Amino acid sequence: MDTHADIPLTPAPPSVSSNAPVVLLSTGSLFLLPLPSIAGIAQAAGFAGLDLVMGSAKIAPGEAVAQAHAICPVRVVHAPFRNWSAWGGHMNAWRAAVGLAASLLDARNGHAVHVTLHPPAGTLQDAIQTRWFARAVDLPRLLDAPAGIGLSLENLPWAARALGAGGFFGQDPLEALLDQCQAKDLGLTLDACHLGVSGRDVLADLARVPADLLRHVHFSDASGFAEHLPPGAGGLPLGPFLERLGADGYAGTVSLELDPAHLSEDESDLVRELARLRASMERALAGNAPPDWSGGRTGGSHAAPGAQSFAALG
Length: 314
Fold this sequence. Notes:
Blueprint (H helix, E strand, L loop, with lengths): L21 E5 L8 H10 L5 E4 L9 H9 L2 E5 L11 H14 L9 E5 L9 H9 L3 H4 L6 E6 L18 H11 L3 E5 H6 L4 H7 L5 E6 L1 E3 L2 E4 L8 H10 L5 E4 L10 H19 L21 H4 L4
Parallel strand pairs: 1-2, 1-10, 2-3, 3-4, 4-5, 5-6, 6-7, 7-10
Antiparallel strand pairs: 8-9
C-alpha cells in the first residue's frame, strides 16, 4: 500500500455532533503502516478520528503522532497492554498514555481525549501492579490526568466462559469490573468482541452498564474464540447492539477495531471497504443496521487471528 505521503496535513475533519456517537478507526487495524498513513486512510474513509493504540514505546509525542493527529484527530488513546517494561513498568506505561493524550488536547478533538486502560490480569507477572491497582481509589489523580482527559477500564476476555455464569468466586466478572470503575473514578470501555469470546450475551450485558459509566466502545465481531472480525463475519448481534446504543442516547466514541488480516492490502479497496463499514456503523447507530449484522452466523471460515493481531489490538 502507498504511504499517503501526498495527503495534506490539515484537511477538515468530518463534522461531529455533540449529541451523536462518534465513529473512529483504531490504528491497530492497520498497525503495519506508519501512523500518518493510517490517519490518511481513516480520513479518506470518513472517520471522525483515531483511536491511537500504544503498541510500541515509539508511539509517543513526536513528529509521526503530530502528523497523524493533523490529518485525522486522535480522540482516544489505548494505553499499553503488554511489554510494560518498555515504559519502565505498568504504572509508568499508563502515565505515558495519559501524557500522550494530554499532548494532543486541542480544538481538533474538542480539547478532550479519552484513555482506555486494561486492568491488571492478576497473574504472577502482574502481582505488584495488581496489589497497587486493588488499593488505588482516585486513578485520574494518581496518573496526573489533566482536565480534558478521561479514563476507563476495558472488559477483557474472561476465563469465566469455562467456569459458568458465576465467574470466579461466584461474582460475575462484568459486575466486578463495574464495581472497580465506580470505586476508582473511572468509566468503562465496552469491547463487544471480548464479550463474545467470553461467551456473554452482548445485548444483555450492554443493558447492565449504567449510561453514565459507558465512555467508549470497541466494535468488532467474534466467532468462537476468534476476535476482531469484521461485523457480519462472526455471530454477534452487532446491528442491534449499535441500534440500542443510539436509541439509549449514547454520545461517546465507537472504534472499529479489526484484525488487519481481514482487510484488503490494496489501498483503494481498503478505503472503500472502511468507508462502507463506517457508513454502516453510523446508520446502525441511527437505527438502521445492515440485516447481516444481526448475529447468529457460525462456522469455521474465519480462523483465529494470527500472532500479529495480538500485538496490535487490545
